[in-house]
TrEMBL record:
Highest taxon of the lineage: Bacteria
Molecular function per GO: DNA-3-methyladenine glycosylase activity; metal ion binding
Keywords from the named record: Metal-binding, Zinc
Source organism of this protein record: Microbulbifer agarilyticus
Name listed for the protein in its UniProt record: 3-methyladenine DNA glycosylase
Binding site for Zn(2+): C14, H27, H181, C185
Gene Ontology BP, a term: base-excision repair
């Protein structure tokens, strides 16, 4: 069973919130709640790519800077970035200055536009992979899954970068494709309710 800690109101939260108080609002209001907005989905897959080799604490602290640097992750705009934009971003101390990851975001923005043309939306694509819930599954006990491996393989085939199985699984956890909150976490029930009420995007 995933560990829990007491939140600001004394009720149990997922143990990873212990790293910083900044995690509580993110955990309570975002993590695990289902998302069907293409811009938010693109933002998250990009930020998970930036997190590779780093901590989410680092990325979350810089998230507003990332949003400003990448036009709020509007992939139609980011797809037009050129070399001078890369050089500008490499000088931006507010983000993670890693050329490969910056170039991956621009590449993935171009691939995202292709995906919208082919699949209708990013939401339709990703939610098409929503796994069935496994009774008795232990939350936060794995960092990859067969589904995350399948998505990762398909994204790479489509030309996406920095989308390994672990990155994709973290994306699935955060965007609500699975509810991986600890069993005793007070937010788990809220996510369950949101997932039941969520209208899945239609898949072509």
């Amino acid at each position: 069973m995933a560990n829990t800690i007491a939140g600001p109101d004394g009720k149990p939260r997922c143990g990873w919130c212990a790293a910083t108080d900044d995690f509580f609002p993110y955990h309570d209001n975002e993590w695990g709640f289902p998302v069907d907005d293409d811009q938010r989905l693109f933002e998250k897959i990009c930020l998970e790519g930036f997190q590779s080799g780093l901590s989410w604490r680092t990325i979350l602290a810089k998230r507003e800077n990332f949003r400003a640097a990448f036009k709020q992750f509007d992939f139609d705009k980011v797809a037009k970035f050129v070399e001078k934009d890369i050089e500008r971003l490499l000088q931006d101390a507010g983000i993670v200055r890693h050329r490969g990851k910056i170039e991956a975001v621009i590449n993935n923005a171009q691939r995202a536009k292709e995906m919208v043309r082919e699949e209708g939306s990013l939401a339709a694509y990703f939610w098409g992979f929503e796994p069935e819930e496994i009774p008795g599954a232990v939350p936060q006990s794995v960092s990859t899954s067969e589904v995350s491996k399948t998505i990762s393989k398909d994204l790479k085939k489509r030309g996406w970068k920095f989308v390994g199985p672990t990155t994709v699984y973290a994306f699935m956890q955060a965007m609500g494709l699975i509810n991986d909150h600890a069993t005793d976490c007070v937010t788990r029930k809220a996510v369950d309710r949101a997932r039941k009420q969520f209208k899945r995007p239609s898949v072509r």
